[in-house]
Amino acid sequence: MQHTVSTKTLIKASISAVLVAAVALVTLILPAEYNIDPTGLGKQLGLTKIAQASEAETATVTEGQQGSVEFQTIEITVPAGRGVEYKFAMSQYAKMTYEWMTDGEALYFDLHGEPEGDTTGYFESYTIATNTEVKGSFTAPFAGSHGWYWKNKTDKPIAIQLMVKGDYQVIGLKQ
User: Fold this and answer.
1) 95-102 β-sheet, strand order
2) What contacts 32, CB < 8 A, 6 or more positions away?
3) What does the alpha-carbon distance between residue 104 and residue 154 come to, in Å, rounded to a whole number?
4) Sign of the alpha-carbon dihedral angle for 77, 72, 112, 116
5) What is the pTM (predicted TM-score) of this model?
6) Torsion from C-alpha of 78, 83, 88, 89, nearest 10 degrees
7) CB 43: neighbour CB atoms within 10 A?
8) Rounded to an integer, what distance in angstroms lies between the CA atom of residue 153 and that of residue 80?
């Protein structure tokens, strides 16, 4: 038995498909991909954050193509029984790839960030552990200073080799 679809049914189905596609375009795709949100629904659903993060990534890649694709190597010494903090200024959604290693002994560390302009002492920790080496990457959740606090619990200084690349400005050691 063969079914034939009427022209009227085909036209209705086509119009319905076009309407569904238009609604999806305006409410989902434009906010998520291009940060264009004519209805405001994209912001309520958190879709505009996806586009903003993508824009930040594009800016980082563009800057990287201008010459910062190589890792920057930084030598840091943590004195015996003391701690040091090494920081970078980063914009919201900026990305950093990092790798650090000690010359032997494990260090307690806290990878964290402090919001730009905050005077309350607030900071957000991303990773807290004790190790001799760590590799990773992160995206700054807010504009501000981001970096490591290392604590040397031994009676000898420990050297760290920190290698970083990404979208940042070096602040350096914080006292």
Assistant:
1) 72-78, 158-166, 95-102, 133-139
2) 42, 47, 48, 50, 51
3) 11
4) positive
5) 0.61
6) -160
7) 13
8) 7
CB-CB neighbours of 122 under 10 Å: 10
Which regions of 50-157 does DSSP assign to beta strands (E)? 72-78, 83-90, 95-102, 107-115, 124-131, 133-139, 144-151
> Is 51 or 94 the better-scoring residue by pLDDT?
94
Helix (H, G, I), strand (E, B) or coil at 24: helix
Distance, CA of 106 to CA of 152 (rounded, Å) = 8
| Tokens linked to 49 | 């954050």
Integer Cα distance of 158 and 64 in angstroms: 32
φ/ψ of 132, rounded to 5, equals -100, -20
Share of the chain above pLDDT 70, in %: 82
Task: Kindly calculate the radius of gyration of the chain based on its CA atoms and give it in whole angstroms.
Answer: 25
Q: What's the rounded Cα separation, in Å, for the pair 50 and 137?
A: 18
Q: Above 80 in pLDDT, residue 66?
A: no
**What is the three-class DSSP state of 17?**
helix
Contacts 24+ apart (CB under 8 A), 62-69: 63/167, 64/165, 64/166, 64/167, 68/165, 68/166, 68/167, 69/165
> What separation in angstroms does the CA of 39 have from each of 24, 26, 44?
12, 7, 10
